[in-house]
UniProtKB/TrEMBL annotation:
S-adenosyl-L-methionine binds at residues 83, 108, 135, 158. One of its GO terms (molecular function) is tRNA (guanine(46)-N7)-methyltransferase activity. This is tRNA (guanine-N(7)-)-methyltransferase. Keywords: Methyltransferase, S-adenosyl-L-methionine, Transferase, tRNA processing. Catalyzes the formation of N(7)-methylguanine at position 46 (m7G46) in tRNA. One of its GO terms (cellular component) is tRNA methyltransferase complex. Signal peptide: none annotated. It comes from Thiomonas delicata. It is an enzyme of class 2 (transferase). Pathway: tRNA modification; N(7)-methylguanine-tRNA biosynthesis. InterPro entries: SAM-dependent_MTases_sf (IPR029063), tRNA_(Gua-N-7)_MeTrfase_Trmb (IPR003358), tRNA_methyltr_TrmB_bact (IPR055361). Its EC number is 2.1.1.33. HAMAP family: tRNA_methyltr_TrmB. Belongs to the class I-like SAM-binding methyltransferase superfamily. TrmB family.
Length: 254
């Protein structure tokens, strides 16, 4: 059941550790390093191609190396949640549909996945979801202002099973620094994986970060906001485990 979104996420060399206000502790840019996704070609269906052409201009925002004007893109001001590597967008669309009071930013590099989510946006008449087809770490680093997100979702990133590939994993100390710097106080970083060794790695990395607090003793029960995909349901029927990690961005020190 692994790899559902994993080819579409990315990692970085560790950035400067953020100050409590979310800004970089050193005056130097975050640099990109090893990527954790492999950009694979896939067949784009006729429907997906039509959605990309007709709906893309409205719902797909271009990457830019500067903070985006999200209020203008969504036409309102609301709590914002960014998802890294949404795959075919099934869970993303359902979450956006069930939480119309929030705005959602889905980041994905795989063209068929972008087309599939656009079709879901159309079918469900969603207005609180935008897509960026680009490297997720660069989007989070460049387009999202510090302490501005209410949530960050990372569902089923590629675990890179082989030891020599562990350096490609998304959840590393440098990514934790970046994620914590972009979440506002009380913001939630929610990760899920079906690969237990990666779950243990995530737990160790995130528990070690001074700005992140585990909301559970270890792993968390699956929150109601994360729906089960058909992919996950099939794995659970086969006895596969799934581990959720829900961390909260600490408030500012007194």
């Amino acid at each position: 059941m692994t790899g559902q979104a994993g080819f579409f996420t990315s990692v970085m060399h560790p950035p400067p550790i953020p100050d409590p206000d979310g800004t970089a502790a050193q005056d130097r840019p975050l640099t990109r390093g090893i990527r954790s996704f492999v950009l694979r070609t896939g067949r784009t269906t006729t429907g997906q191609a039509r959605a990309l052409a007709e709906l893309g201009p409205r719902f797909v925002a271009p990457y830019a190396p500067a903070p985006a004007d999200w209020d203008a893109l969504f036409g309102r001001r609301a709590p914002r949640v960014l998802e890294i590597g949404f795959g075919m967008g099934e869970a993303t669309a359902r979450i956006a549909q069930e939480h119309p009071d929030k705005d959602f930013i889905g980041v994905e590099v795989h063209t068929p996945g972008v087309g599939a989510l656009l079709l879901r946006i159309e079918a469900l008449e969603l207005r609180n979801l935008r897509i960026i087809q680009h490297d997720a770490v660069e989007v989070l680093r460049d387009m999202v202002a510090p302490v501005s997100l209410a949530g960050l979702h990372v569902y089923f990133p590629d675990p890179w099973h082989k030891k020599r590939h562990h350096k490609r994993r998304l959840i590393q100390p440098g990514f934790a620094d970046l994620a914590a710097s972009r979440l506002g106080a009380g913001g939630i970083l929610h990760c899920a994986t079906d690969w237990e060794p990666y779950a243990a790695h995530m737990l160790d990395v995130l528990s070690s970060h001074p700005l992140l607090r585990n909301t559970a003793e270890n792993y968390a029960p699956r929150p109601a906001w994360r729906p089960l995909s058909k992919f996950e349901q099939r794995g659970l029927r086969l006895g596969h485990g799934v581990w959720d990690l829900v961390f909260e961005r600490r408030g500012e020190p007194a």
